[in-house]
């Protein structure tokens, strides 16, 4: 009967990877007892955006097997590393960038990290905006200081299930850093390679605005899985976002998707939607990049950031939080698609 169950599961494709669950090695167990088929599916990410569809497709396929009267599906998850992991213990490095400041890039990066961690992934967050670090404040750890272990490696600070490092936790509050390019490169090297990140599924990197030294240092230092571009709908923001995309293209960093932030506003008293900045403009960047989500303007995002708790955790039912959660899951799906190219054609299965 095990063979019959596995044969049925070979007809079920992962809706993003477009290969069947068995050849992808996603079936950990499949057994039948008392008319009930029990299956454990190991997803390629705990933040799988199409988990519900997979469960429905598995149930539908197994109910066609003679003797199966009911189906119980349970899930695990294992984020697969590419053929060349980014850093020891770190499977994927994802850059969050923008062509200009003021588009909410850091807010998006913090909420992506918090959402992925809440879904069960092991997540790190690096604040690479050396001149204007804000991650520590948004994570509620502005006063914390970075320490080192016995091996003299920096110990990331932990908050909301996320390990993070920020220059704000090394330098006195309000002190300006006047550094040249080589000093920036050295700082980025230390944050990446002289830190005890441990085992991470995703290391989210909040970049400074623009296309300068920090971006170049990162792409030259580690194997980057891809980049997320944050923009707002206005033409001037889109022009700058296009420059960021061109920079990543020249650095051979895939663009995993676009996040259109401050896309629209929903009036709390009437529920009416207002496109204050011309919603949907990010689609002009080209159909070749997935639109991960359109995040509405929401005062809770700002208030929660000021209070040190990402909105996806503080107010998960708010419209912006719901979209940011889906953005994180869509991003995880895009990373899984990228990882597929490094997988063998057939994996060991049960």
TrEMBL record:
PROSITE patterns: MRP. Residues 3-73 form the MIP18 family-like domain. It comes from the Bacteria. GO terms for molecular function: 4 iron, 4 sulfur cluster binding; ATP binding; ATP hydrolysis activity; ATP-dependent FeS chaperone activity; metal ion binding. Gene3D superfamilies: Fe-S cluster assembly (FSCA) (3.30.300.130), P-loop containing nucleotide triphosphate hydrolases (3.40.50.300). GO terms for biological process: iron-sulfur cluster assembly. The keyword Transport does not apply. Pfam families: FeS_assembly_P, ParA. In the N-terminal section; belongs to the MIP18 family. In the C-terminal section; belongs to the Mrp/NBP35 ATP-binding proteins family. Binds and transfers iron-sulfur (Fe-S) clusters to target apoproteins. Can hydrolyze ATP. Homodimer. This is Iron-sulfur cluster carrier protein.
């Amino acid at each position: 009967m095990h063979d019959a169950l596995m044969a049925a599961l070979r007809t079920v494709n992962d809706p993003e990877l477009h290969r069947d669950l068995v050849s992808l090695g996603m079936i950990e167990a499949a057994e039948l007892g008392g008319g009930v088929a029990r299956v454990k599916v190991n997803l390629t990410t705990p933040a799988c955006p199409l988990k519900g569809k997979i469960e429905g497709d598995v149930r539908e396929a197994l109910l066609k097997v003679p003797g199966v009267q009911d189906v119980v599906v349970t899930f695990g998850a294992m984020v697969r590393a590419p053929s060349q992991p980014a850093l020891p213990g770190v499977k994927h490095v994802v850059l969050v960038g923008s062509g200009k400041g003021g588009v909410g890039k850091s807010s998006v990066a913090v909420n992506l990290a918090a959402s992925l961690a809440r879904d069960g992934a092991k997540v790190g967050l690096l604040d690479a905006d050396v001149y204007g670090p804000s991650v520590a404040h948004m994570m509620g750890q502005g006063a914390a200081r970075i320490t080192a272990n016995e091996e003299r490696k920096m110990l990331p600070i932990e908050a909301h299930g996320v390990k993070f490092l920020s220059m704000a936790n090394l330098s006195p509050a309000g002190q300006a850093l006047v550094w040249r390019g080589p000093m920036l490169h050295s700082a980025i090297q230390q944050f990446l390679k002289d830190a005890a990140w441990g085992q991470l599924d995703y290391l989210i990197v909040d970049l400074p605005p623009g296309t300068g030294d920090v971006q170049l240092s990162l792409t030259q230092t580690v194997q980057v899985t891809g980049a997320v571009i944050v923009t707002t709908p206005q033409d001037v923001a889109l022009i700058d976002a296009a420059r960021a995309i061109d920079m990543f293209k020249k650095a051979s960093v895939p663009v995993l998707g676009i996040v259109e932030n401050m896309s629209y506003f929903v009036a709390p008293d009437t529920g009416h939607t207002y496109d204050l900045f011309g919603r949907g403009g990010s689609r002009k960047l080209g159909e070749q990049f997935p639109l991960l989500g359109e995040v509405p303007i929401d005062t809770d995002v700002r208030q929660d950031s000021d209070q040190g708790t990402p909105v996806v955790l503080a107010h998960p039912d708010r419209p912006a939080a719901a979209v940011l959660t889906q953005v994180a899951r869509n991003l995880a799906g895009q990373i899984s698609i990228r990882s597929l190219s490094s997988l063998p054609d057939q994996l060991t299965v049960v």
